[in-house]
Design brief:
Archaeosine Trna-guanine Transglycosylase, Chain: A, domain 4, 6-stranded mixed beta sheet, Transcription Regulator spoIIAA, alpha/beta, 393 residues, single chain, 3 domains, Rossmann fold
Length: 393
C-alpha cells in the first residue's frame, strides 16, 4: 500500500536531520494523497529524498515522527517500542520491584512515541492519547501492554480531556481490557489509593516520586505545609520522615478526601496530619510563620505561550508569599510543571520573589522530572518539570 507523502520546503529538513520529532505546517511544500487525521505518512525533502515516517494530524504540528529509518508501523513496531520502554523501567529499578508498583511506562517523545502516555499502577495500566493516531490504535496498544508488562491485568483508556478538541472523534474513558476500580499502588514502600476514573491526569502525579523521597530527608522535626497537595504524596513522605506536624491544602474537597485516605493507609490513627479544603493563596496568607518546610507544587500556570507573562507573575507572587511566611532557617520546595516556562524563567521568578522578601536564600537542589519521564535530547520541549529546594535564613 502506498502511503501519503509529505514534501518539505527547501531547507526545512534541517530539524529532521537533528532528529526533532515534529514537522510544522509552515514547513510543508505539498501533500501527495489524501491523508486523514491519524494516518501514517512518509516525509520527503525538497529533493524527494526519504526522511522519516510518522502520523498526520490537523494543526500547527502536522506530522509527529515515529521513525527516521524506513519501517512498517505495525503491531511488531508497537511491541518492540513498548518492550524497549519496559526494559528501561526494569533497568531503572521501577518495574518488577515489590516496593514500587507505580511508574510511567511511556512518556511520549521521551520514549520516541509522540502523543502517547502510559502510567502503570500495580496490575493496571492507564493510557492517555494526545493525538488521533494513538486513539485509533488504542486496542493494539492495550493488547501489546498485556503481553509486555509482567503482572498486568487491566488497561484503562483515559483520553476524553487530552485529545485535540477539534478532532473528529468521540473518545470515551473506559476499560479496554479487564476492570479494576479499587487500586492501592506502592511507591518507595508507601501505599496510596489511585483514582484514574475521576482523578487528574492518569490518577496520580508519578513525576514527583524522587522529589518526594528527597523531601522525606528534610522533614524530621519540622512543621510542614503541603500546598496544592492533590492526593497527599508529599504529605505522607513528610510523615514517614519524622515531621512533627503536616498540613495538606487543596481547593478540591475530593483531593482532600483522598489525601486523608492515603495518610490513613500508611499511618493508622495519625494525629500529626490535618488536611484543609481551602484556596491556597488565602491559606498561605494566614500561615503567619507557622511552618519551617513548605511545598509549592501548583498546577500548570501556563499551558500556552500567550499567557506566559501572567504565569511568571503568578509564580513570583506565590513564592513571595511563601518567603514572607516561612520560619527562619526554613526549607522551601517550589515547582513549576508548565512546559512553556523555561528553567531560567522559573528561577528568575523565584529570584524576584526572594529579592522582594528581603530574605537570604540559598539553592540546595535543582530538581527535574525522574528517569521514567525521559527527555529526548533532540526534543527540548519534553523537559517540563522544574523545581528548586531553597534554604531561607
Amino acid at each position: 500500500m502506498t502511503l501519503p507523502q509529505i514534501t518539505l520546503k527547501k531547507g526545512k529538513e534541517e530539524a529532521l536531520l537533528r532528529f526533532h520529532p515534529w514537522i510544522f505546517s509552515g514547513a510543508i511544500h505539498r501533500i501527495k494523497g489524501d491523508p486523514q487525521e491519524g494516518d501514517i505518512v512518509e516525509v520527503y525533502n525538497a529533493q524527494q529524498q526519504w526522511m522519516a515516517i510518522g502520523y498526520y494530524q490537523i494543526g500547527s504540528i502536522t506530522v509527529r515522527i515515529l521513525s527516521f529509518i524506513p519501517i512498517a508501523i505495525d503491531t511488531d513496531f508497537w511491541l518492540n517500542k513498548i518492550q524497549s520502554a519496559y526494559n528501561l523501567r526494569v533497568t531503572l529499578g521501577l518495574a518488577e520491584n515489590t516496593q514500587n508498583t507505580t511508574y510511567r511506562l511511556i512518556h511520549g517523545e521521551g520514549d520516541n512515541l509522540p502523543g502517547l502516555v502510559i502510567d502503570v499502577y500495580g496490575t493496571t495500566a492507564v493510557i492517555q492519547a494526545h493525538t488521533v493516531a494513538i486513539h485509533k490504535i488504542r486496542h493494539t496498544i492495550a493488547s501489546v501492554l498485556i503481553q509486555t508488562v509482567k503482572g498486568l491485568e487491566n488497561v484503562y483508556y483515559k483520553s476524553e480531556g487530552t485529545l485535540p478538541f477539534k478532532a473528529d472523534v468521540t473518545p470515551e474513558n473506559n476499560y479496554l481490557i479487564g476492570q479494576e476500580t479499587n487500586c492501592i499502588a506502592m511507591e518507595h514502600g508507601l501505599r496510596f489509593h489511585v483514582d484514574w476514573l475521576r482523578g487528574q491526569k492518569t490518577g496520580f502525579f508519578v513525576d514527583q516520586r524522587e522529589n518526594r523521597l528527597l523531601l522525606e530527608k528534610y522533614a524530621k522535626d519540622r512543621s510542614v505545609l503541603n500546598m496544592f497537595c492533590y492526593t497527599g504524596g508529599f504529605s505522607f513522605y513528610a510523615l514517614r520522615g519524622g515531621a512533627k506536624l503536616v498540613h495538606s491544602v487543596d481547593s478540591s474537597a475530593k483531593a482532600i478526601e483522598l489525601t486523608n485516605k492515603n495518610v490513613a493507609l500508611n499511618f493508622a490513627n495519625e494525629n500529626r496530619h490535618t488536611a484543609f479544603a481551602e484556596d491556597a493563596f488565602k491559606f498561605l496568607e494566614q500561615a503567619k510563620g507557622q511552618y519551617d518546610l513548605i511545598i509549592l507544587d501548583p498546577p500548570a500556570f501556563a499551558k500556552h505561550k500567550n499567557v506566559l507573562n501572567n504565569a511568571l507573575q503568578g509564580y513570583r507572587k506565590l513564592n513571595a508569599k511563601a518567603f514572607e511566611q516561612i520560619k527562619p532557617n526554613g526549607i522551601l520546595f517550589t515547582f513549576s510543571c508548565s512546559q512553556v516556562v523555561s528553567k531560567e524563567q522559573f528561577r528568575l521568578s523565584v529570584f524576584s520573589a526572594a529579592a522582594q522578601s528581603g530574605r537570604k536564600v540559598r539553592i540546595l537542589h535543582q530538581l527535574t522530572q525522574p528517569a521514567d519521564h525521559p527527555i529526548n535530547i533532540y526534543h527540548a520541549e519534553g523537559e517540563y518539570l522544574k523545581g528548586l529546594v531553597l534554604y531561607v535564613e
